[in-house]
Every structure is written in C-alpha cells, then in structure tokens.
Design goal:
This protein is an alpha/beta fold and 363 residues long. The protein has 2 domains: 234 residues, Trna Endonuclease, Chain: A, domain 1 (3-Layer(aba) Sandwich); 97 residues, no CATH class. The protein contains 13 helices and 10 strands. A hairpin with a 5-residue loop joins strand 2 and strand 3. Helix 6 crosses helix 7, helix 8 packs antiparallel against helix 10 and helix 8 crosses helix 13. The protein is elongated, with a radius of gyration of 25 Å.
Length: 363
C-alpha cells in the first residue's frame, strides 16, 4: 500500500510519545496473559500508530491488533466529523492489512482499536417527537474497553451511516474503543509506566526506571525508521520489535535484580570470599551492574567470552554457594584464558555472568 503521507510520523517524532507509551502500557498490562512465551512483533508508525502482530507455530500471522492512538485536551471524544474521519482511516487500515503480502494463517483476524487517554463518549439522541431515551456508552476509567458488535443498535447504526464509504462497513465489526489511563505529558506517562511495571513484575525487576528506558529505546528505534519507498509492508523487519527483543530486555533486568538482591543480602560474605576490599566494593558493583547489558553487545567480545566461559563451566562446579562458584570460576579462568581485565573486573563480570546463566537455566 503506497501512501506519501505514511512517513509524516518520522518527520514529527516529538509527537510519538502517546502512541509509543500506549503500546508499552498495553504490553505490560497484558504481558502474562497475552504476550509471555508467545511469538509476536510490534510495529510503530506502520499501517497504524502501532500494531501487535501475533504469529502461529508456522510463523504465519494469526492476529493483528491495530491501534490509532489520539489525545484530546481538554475535551472528550464524541461522535462527530473529527472522530468519524479518524474511524474511516482506521477502517481503511483493516482493508490494508488484508491486502498486505505477509503470510497469514487460515484463522487470520484483526482488531482495529481507537484508543485515547480521554473519555470516548458515544451518544445517540432520538428526535424529540420519538419520545425515546438517549442512548450512550462512555469508554473511560470504569468502562475501559468496548467493541462495536456489543454497542446498542442505535449507536451502531449512527456510526455506520456516518461512515460514507460503504465498502468499509464490513470492517466495523472489527472495530473497538479503548481508554488508556495516561496523563498528558510524556514525562508523566513514563512515570506511570514505571508504576505499571512495578505492579506487573514487582521485585522481579530491580530498576523499574531502567526497564522503561530500555523499552522506550527499543520502540524509539523503529518509530523513526522510514517506510521504504513510502510503502507499508509488514515483512519490513526494520519497523519491528520482536518478542525475543522484549524477552531479552526483561531477562536482563530480572537476572540483574536477583544479582543485586544477593549482593546486598550477603555483601560482607561475598567480599570476604572473593577478597574484595571495602574500598573496592563500589567499583565491583558498578562493573557487575554494567555487565548484564554488555553481555548482549556485539561489540563487547571480552564480556561475551567470559559469559560463554561461565555457560560452559557452570555444570562442572563443585562448590555450594554462588560466591564460591565465582571464586572457582575465577581460578579456572585465570589458568586457561587471557584478558585485559584486572582481577576485580574479572570477578565482577563472572559474578554477573553466573546469575545470568543460572536465570537462563531456571527458565
């Protein structure tokens, strides 16, 4: 599908905050129910503001959730020309998804969501002569989601007759409305996301702010990537964040949390066994903290070498505590490998690698 306006989003990247943050909010809100251990990818500024594309075991798309995410301040959304124009564009997206060349399963379906951080008030007022009650549905804090097929008939008819392109009417039954509990500024939204990740993961994630920053960076990478030739194709990998990238981000943060918890609970014992002087403790912590991210960096070969060494040796260790395991690994590494790291750095990186490897084995 060619559309010369399709890259207007990357040209105005400062306006992306609500769309990006809404995608992250929905990912967190539904993580354990809908996303964990599933094959999916997320697209931003691609067909719609963002898409969740779920794959089956054959890597065919089985479900797409497309979202048009809008803010409206200070007013609320009503059934008027402004909203009908947005809904028309969203329904056209449904047609575009059907035509997209990506491989789809026989059970393929899509849902087209209009989302906002403001109340969406859908109302039908009968003529005074009809002497009938006003029919209304409000999508807001106490009624966060509503799909078109479940709307009262009067509201369905009002929306249908206001969508003048009749070939889009079949897509109305894929339409949904969703309210997102966000304030208006980007900074406040990110603070709310920190609260959401704490609600979802609790103590499993050590640094909630770092977790949100990681997800924002992942999504920012694709939201400002241009659609090649102004053509939208779901096969375009440059516009995706895949489930493996999301899982990898969470795994780093989760294993880091376990490592930090262990360090803080047994700092004195660890320092004694690994021969870390009090003046070196802060440096030791900084090195193992940064190691979790550097294990995943293609450029950091030395970190990767130590990680792989631990992965190969972990089942051969004879000691009974994590810090003793690290000391054993340190002796083995010093006797068999060469590195530019000093002894303190080696111990700290081994410490981080052990927790990362143990976390992977647990999961």
């Amino acid at each position: 599908m060619i559309d010369k306006t399709i890259n207007s989003g990357p040209d105005a990247q400062n306006g992306f905050a609500l769309q990006r943050n809404t995608a992250i909010f929905l990912l967190l809100e539904n993580y354990f129910v809908k996303f964990q251990n599933k094959k999916y990818f997320v697209c931003l500024e691609h067909h719609e503001d963002f898409l969740f594309c779920f794959l089956n075991e054959n890597d065919e798309v089985s479900l797409i959730e497309a979202y048009q995410s809008k803010k409206k301040s200070p007013d609320i959304w009503r059934l008027n020309n402004e909203l009908f124009e947005i809904l028309t564009k969203l329904l056209k997206t449904g047609k575009g998804l059907i035509q997209d060349g990506i491989s789809k399963s026989l059970e393929y379906n899509h849902i087209l969501y209009f989302s906002s951080n403001q109340t969406i008030h859908l109302e039908h007022k009968p003529k005074p002569s009809e002497q009938l009650p006003v029919i209304s549905v409000s999508i807001k804090a106490d009624n966060k989601e509503y799909i078109f097929p479940n709307l009262p008939e009067e509201l369905k008819e009002k929306i249908k007759t206001s969508i003048t392109e009749t070939d889009l009417h079949s897509e109305l039954y894929n339409l949904g409305f969703i309210w997102i509990p966000f304030t208006t500024t980007e900074k406040e939204q990110e603070n709310q996301l920190v609260g959401k990740i704490d609600e979802v993961f609790g103590n499993q994630v050590f640094d909630k702010r770092a977790a949100i920053d990681t997800l924002v960076c992942l999504f920012r990478k694709i939201e400002t990537t241009y659609n090649n030739g102004n053509t939208v194709k779901l096969l375009d990998n440059t516009k995706r964040v895949g489930n493996s990238e999301v899982e990898n981000a969470f795994n780093i943060l989760t294993s880091k949390a376990k490592c930090f918890d262990y360090w803080h609970s047994k700092e004195t014992d660890i320092a004694r066994i690994l021969k870390i002087r009090p003046v070196e403790k802060e440096q030791f912590q900084l090195v193992f903290n940064s190691a979790f991210d550097l294990f995943k960096s293609i450029k950091e070969r030395e970190h990767k070498k130590i990680f792989n060494f631990v992965k190969e040796q972990v089942n051969n260790l004879n000691s009974y505590s994590e810090e003793e395991n690290v000391l054993e690994l340190f002796e083995l590494f010093k006797n068999s490998e060469r590195t530019n790291f000093n002894d303190l750095q080696i111990k700290a990186i081994l410490f981080a690698a052990l927790f990362e490897v143990l976390y992977i084995k647990e999961n």
